[in-house]
């Protein structure tokens, strides 16, 4: 096993791929943890060694071609979750976990927190945000009803798989955010819309493998799609309801401009590296 890893490390180092990916792929193949692959007690029967070597080399080659490690293994960590992912759905990012923190913070600190709250997740993708909010709210004895809106039928397949995996009563609506949930009013809307400007260069593993519809926000400033999400949130929120939205680090002022007609008290929130990546506001 050590020889396999060393060979993978060498190839990944040459191609500027994180070395940890080699460990993740081997652990996935063997059905063990990353820690266990370094264990002296890990014994592979000699008759299986060639098969494992061939399969591991196939995984390594997929990664060298740029396929994201999450798509190869079929799973992506998010907070306390292990979500199923694959081609057609955006891979959840660690930064988005902070949006969930804000959402749970709002639900926990509301003066009427003992009353049930309605939450809508716009552009739900894999269900990372919806499932995290629903499961963590339950742990904190907060009553919530969650609706996940996703227009991509392919992404919605992964969304439904993950909801079923965690056995949560989340309603899925496969529809564009501009028309979804006519007549519904929510206490909280969360959103991670496509916001990357069309001409911004992305790493090849993102550009070539993840769905463009979940990434690109439009020409020049990337605000075309985020503005549609703001309009949808304004339509869906009750008076004084909260919107929490992720965005590009260069869009915070543009987001505030987009909010000024229908929202008040906009606040920009930084991610763990100090970049302005989230904005919250109250519906007028």
Automatic annotation (TrEMBL):
It catalyses: L-glutaminyl-[peptide chain release factor] + S-adenosyl-L-methionine = N(5)-methyl-L-glutaminyl-[peptide chain release factor] + S-adenosyl-L-homocysteine + H(+). Its EC number is 2.1.1.297. Residues 3-74 form the Release factor glutamine methyltransferase N-terminal domain. Residues 100-199 form the Methyltransferase small domain. GO terms for molecular function: nucleic acid binding; peptide chain release factor N(5)-glutamine methyltransferase activity. It is an enzyme of class 2 (transferase). GO terms for biological process: methylation. It holds the Pfam family PrmC_N. Keywords: Methyltransferase, S-adenosyl-L-methionine, Transferase. NCBIfam families: hemK_fam, RF_mod_PrmC. PANTHER family: HEMK METHYLTRANSFERASE (PTHR18895), MTRF1L RELEASE FACTOR GLUTAMINE METHYLTRANSFERASE (PTHR18895:SF74). This is peptide chain release factor N(5)-glutamine methyltransferase. It comes from freshwater metagenome.
């Amino acid at each position: 096993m050590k020889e396999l890893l060393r060979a993978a490390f060498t190839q990944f180092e040459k191609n500027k791929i994180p070395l940890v990916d080699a460990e993740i792929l081997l652990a996935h193949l063997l059905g063990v943890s990353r820690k266990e692959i370094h264990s002296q007690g890990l014994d592979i029967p000699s008759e299986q060694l060639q098969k494992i070597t061939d399969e591991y080399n196939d995984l390594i080659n997929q990664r060298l071609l740029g396929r994201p490690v999450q798509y190869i293994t079929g799973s992506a960590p998010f907070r306390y979750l292990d979500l199923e992912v694959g081609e057609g759905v955006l891979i959840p990012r660690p930064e988005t976990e902070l949006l969930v923190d804000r959402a749970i913070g709002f639900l926990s600190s509301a003066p009427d927190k003992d009353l049930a709250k309605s939450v809508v997740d716009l552009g739900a993708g894999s269900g990372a945000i919806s499932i995290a909010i629903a499961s963590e709210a339950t742990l904190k004895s907060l009553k919530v009803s969650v609706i996940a809106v996703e227009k991509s039928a392919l992404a919605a397949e992964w969304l439904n798989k993950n909801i079923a995996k965690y056995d949560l009563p989340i309603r899925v609506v496969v529809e564009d955010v501009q028309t979804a949930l006519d007549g519904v009013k929510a206490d909280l809307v969360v959103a991670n819309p496509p916001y990357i400007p069309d001409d911004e260069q992305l790493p090849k593993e993102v550009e070539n493998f993840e769905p463009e519809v979940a990434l690109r926000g439009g020409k020049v400033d990337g605000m075309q799609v985020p503005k549609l999400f703001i309009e949808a949130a304004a339509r869906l929120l009750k008076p004084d309801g909260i919107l929490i939205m992720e965005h590009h680090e260069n869009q915070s002022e543009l987001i505030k401009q987009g909010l000024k007609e229908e929202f008040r008290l906009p606040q920009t929130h930084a991610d763990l590296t100090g970049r302005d990546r989230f904005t919250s506001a109250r519906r007028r």
